[in-house]
Every structure is written in C-alpha cells, then in structure tokens.
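Reviewer 2 asked us to include a model.

Predict the structure of this chain.
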Amino acid sequence: MEYYNFLCIDIIGSSIEVDTQLNNIEDLLKEIKDFLSTANEGELQTSFTGDGAIIWFRKDSILPLQLALKIHEKFPQCTEEQSFGLKIGIARDKVAEIQSAKSILGIPVWGKGPTFARRLCDLCDDGHILLDENAYKYFIENYGKITHDQFGFNMVDGRFFQDLGEFFVKHRKPVHVYNYCNTKKGKELFSFGNMDIPRDKRGLIDRIDINPDLVVPFDLFLESEALSLKKKIDNGKEIVLLDESITNLYHALFEDAKQYDSTNLLIPSKFQEYQLRTSYLSCQANMIRRARHEDFKSVRIMVLDKLLILKDWQNSKTRDLSTDFFRWHKEWGVTLLQIDPDRSLEIVRMLEDKLPTFYLKSTQMGFWKEKYVMQFEKFGTSENNNSDKRNRIWISDSNAQYYKNSELFLQELLSSKELWEIQFEDKVGVDFVKWDHRY
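Predicted model (structure tokens):
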C-alpha cells in the first residue's frame, strides 16, 4: 500500500432551482476538467458524482491545493459575489488499488485516503477547504518555501492553515483537521476558504472524550445550540444560559466529578433561591454521595462581608432560605468559608503582578478538580431579567489557561490567614471562627 492524495468536492445548494443548480455543476466540472487537463495521463483519476467529484492524485504534487485555490478564485466563497457554496476535503493516506472498489467510490482504490476526504467534505460548511493532518504535513514539509508562479504567493504559508484539532466524523474515529483559508485580500492574494470553525455535523458528544454516562445530560443541556456553544467555549467567549439549560449543565458536570470547590458572591438566601430553580446543590449532593469516603473534602468560599451574611440570616423574610443553605452544607460536609471582597481582590492583583499570563473572567467560579472550571459573571441571576443581566459563564477544561489560573486563585484564597469558617447551629445561629486550614 502506498500514500496518495485525494480531493473531494461537493456543491451546496439543495434549495436552488434545478436549472440553476445544473448550470452551477456544469461550470464547476468544466473548471476542474480544464485545470486537470495539463496533468499527464495516468497521474490522476477522477470520478464525477452527481454534484461534485472525487479525485485520486496518483503522483505526489501540490495539485490538490492548486485545484482548490483555482476553484475558489473562479467561484468566490463567503463573499457577496458567491453564486453557490462549495465544500472541499483533502486527505492523504495509504490505499490499495482494487478494481472492485470502483463500484463503491468511483475510483479503483480502497483505504482511508478517499474515505477521509469524503468525511472532511461532509464536515465542511459553505466555502471550507479542510485537510487531514497527513495532507497538511505533506504540503508544509515539501512546498512550504515555494512561491507558486500561478498565484504569485506562497500558497503553503503557515498563516493560511488553522489547526482545528480532532473531529470524530464517523464511528468515533478521530481525524485531525486543518482549515485552509484567507479572508484578507492583497495585491496578489484573493479571498479563499472560510475562517469559521465548521459546524460539527456529528454533534459535540462525538468530539469530547467523556464518560458515556454523560451523553444524555450533555444532549439535554446542549440541545440545538451545541455547535455554536462549543465554538464559543473553544474561543473563550461568554455563554448566556437559561435555567433549564443550566440545570442540565450542572447535571453533566457533576456526574463524573470527584471533587468540587467554589467561590460565591451571593448571600445565602439568594443562593438557595437559585438552587430551587436549578437543582444546583442537588447535583453537588449526588456527586458527594458517589464519592463519599473519610477523606472527602469540599469547600465553598463566600466572598462577602460578614455583616451581610449575618443580616441575611437575621432577617425574618430570608431566614428560612438562609437556614436551609447552612443546613445543607453542614449535612453534606461542605466547609463554608468567608473572606472579605477586598482581600480577594488583593489576591487577584498580586497574581496579576506576579504572573504575566494570569487573568480571570470572574472571581465567582465552580472548580471541578482535574476536569473543568466554570466562571460566572452573574451567578444566580433569574432568566426573567433582561438578557444583559442573565447568567453569563465561561467553561474551561483542565488543559486551559483559565483553569490553571482559577486553580492558582483558589490555592491563594485557601492559604490566606484572613479566611474564616462559617459555623451554624439552629439554636445559636451563625458564627465565624478562624479557619484551621486543614484541607
């Protein structure tokens, strides 16, 4: 078996009138045939499908990228001049030449090359040119310093490739995907490709290596917004969630967790109201129940003035909710701590001065150890408020810088000498004692 390059191309536009679509297909196929006519006979083999083509390049060359660029030059994508959408997938892998495979693929080969080219094409949105890792490395390593005469620029310059990471495009088989694009026109450059991350057609569940038990809660949480949400998470953008969705998110995040710590800016009664809407503490209790052992530790740090906490419990209108809050933490063994907001801010400033990469979206966070951190801008805000006041969050996994920064912040909080433990007894009420730092 030998390595070969494969290109798959499809036209998008099922809603276009039949006659117009036929003309588009004819124009595209003519452009492909004209471009490939310069290649020597036997260097490639093409199978024209109903609305595109799959091409087997039997000789190593830069022709696949050249063809993709030529097509985008002739039929601009993601611009006002776009007349129809195109999807292009380019893959490189070992294949065996088997004549019987022609009836299935249209070309007499069998292996991952044409299969991955087809799957990359399926993954594309309008205007995407997607490559697998083998094709990307082949072009970069062999043509990275060549300025191609036909286009007048180095078409394999690293700036044209976006590393999109792994996509599980079928049967949970990962394909490392690169996006080939340029949206900045120049003297020689024209616009090609699509800068946006492609919508993951198989859904987020197939992209994340998570416990199978989490599939249902993640499906419920993500609903139809899964793809745009994952893109936002990848780019570190904020997310606005309504109560039903955030309930399912908490279910998913707590499901496979072993340890959880958090900071909180809400007074106890408001926190408890939020719990009643979202089952936040119920999800945490289920985690504690599953992870129950003698050495189990969990803390919730209240970043509030002591007086606010006391007044909340003393107020007859909020006492019941406040009492439920304190009872829950006592029953489930979650240590309640208190630190003044000014001291918390001093810790943030100290870390910012000490570490150039330190930055937090918010000091209000939930920290699932070795898994995720979720930072909140308006934790506990009702979904009935205006959208600019809703609960905005940022989720980061354990490999992300935000997770590492959050871990540092929590470590500094927990080592502070100005940390107090909140103790509660029904008949006595709320008391604050210096924390012994046993954690």
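The chain is about 35% helix and 25% strand. The first strand starts at residue 2 and ends at 12. We have added this to the supplementary material.
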